């Protein structure tokens, strides 16, 4: 990937990274482990971001 990214693409990548973060531990504890992960979790190798 290029060092210099277009602003809108960089902003989209940042949004996707934030969306892919894990949920807080206190949420898991509060729900007795019924909620373990987000719907939007994405692994960098298995699924790519649409441009």
Determine and state the CATH class.
Mainly Alpha
Estimate the global geometry from the Cα principal axes. elongated
CATH topology: Atp Synthase Epsilon Chain, Chain: I
Overall mean pLDDT: 90
Examine the secondary-structure arrangement and name the CATH architecture: Orthogonal Bundle
- Low-confidence runs (pLDDT<50, min 5 residues)? none
Radius of gyration: 14 Å
Number of DSSP helices?
Answer: 2
Query: How is the main sheet built?
Result: none
Multimeric organization: single chain
Helix content: 25-40%
Broad structural category = mainly alpha
Number of strands: 0
Q: What would you give as the CATH superfamily?
A: Ribosomal protein L39
Q: N- to C-terminal separation?
A: 13 Å
Provide the number of structural domains: 1
Order of helices and strands: HH
Strand content: under 5%
Summarize the structure.
The protein has 51 residues and is an all-alpha fold.
Please render the helix and strand layout as text.
Blueprint: H1 7-19, H2 25-30
Describe the protein in words:
The chain has 51 residues and is mostly helical. The chain has one domain: Atp Synthase Epsilon Chain, Chain: I (Orthogonal Bundle). Helix content is 37%, strand content 0%. It has two helices and no strands. The mean pLDDT is 90.
Structure characteristics:
single chain, mainly alpha, Atp Synthase Epsilon Chain, Chain: I, 37% helix, 0% strand, elongated
């Amino acid at each position: 990937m290029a060092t210099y990214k277009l602003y809108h693409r960089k902003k989209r990548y940042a949004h996707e990274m934030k969306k892919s973060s894990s949920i807080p531990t206190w949420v898991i504890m509060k729900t007795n482990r019924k909620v373990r992960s987000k719907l939007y979790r994405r692994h960098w190798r298995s699924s790519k971001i649409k441009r």
